[in-house]
Prior knowledge:
Blueprint: H1 3-25, H2 28-56
Helix pairs in contact: 1-2
Amino acid sequence: MNHDQKEGIKEQIKGWTDTAIGTVTGNEERKVRGDVEITNGANRKDYGDQKDNIEEGVEDPGEPTNQ
Length: 67
């Protein structure tokens, strides 16, 4: 697991936490911030997956789930 994959997962977890807290407290701004963090984290993890695929010589490195 490379750095981008780890950081992406960490950001997704932070986003899920912010979304849950925002939902429980009724804080819409925190919910939206959490949703953005989830999306950004998923994108960063996908980028890390693509880097791994390229290093491993996968035929289609643009498909993050192609491991």
